[in-house]
Amino acid sequence: MTFMPKHASFEAAPESRDTAPPVVKPSNGGEVWTEDHILTLARLVREEGLSNGEVAHRMGRTETSIVTAVSRYSVRDPKARLRACMTCKRPFFSLHIGHRICGKCRVRHQFECT
Ligand SMILES: [Zn+2]
Hints:
Layout: H1 35-47, H2 52-59, H3 63-72, E1 81-84, E2 91-94, H4 103-113
Helix pairs in contact: 2-3
Bound molecules: zinc ion.
């Protein structure tokens, strides 16, 4: 009895690209950023002016996690205003009135479109 498993048609993983931006990995297993976390992050970074390391210590997270979240939610941009993402409804720092989808959802959207 011969029978071809469906997964046999999968191609090898894509080669790494030198010019590609840092890959955003879904590394937040068990580290979900709730609205409260994002607001706390924003307060520590924007109002108290703490470094990523200090914020990590205060929030009990790794510095990598803070760096990712700061970038993902545009927390450090002084022009950014807090708005709710149209897709996931979480608060994020929107850079202008037309910027209504958070970094995380934008990344997911890019994966879906390519
Ligand atoms: Zn979102």
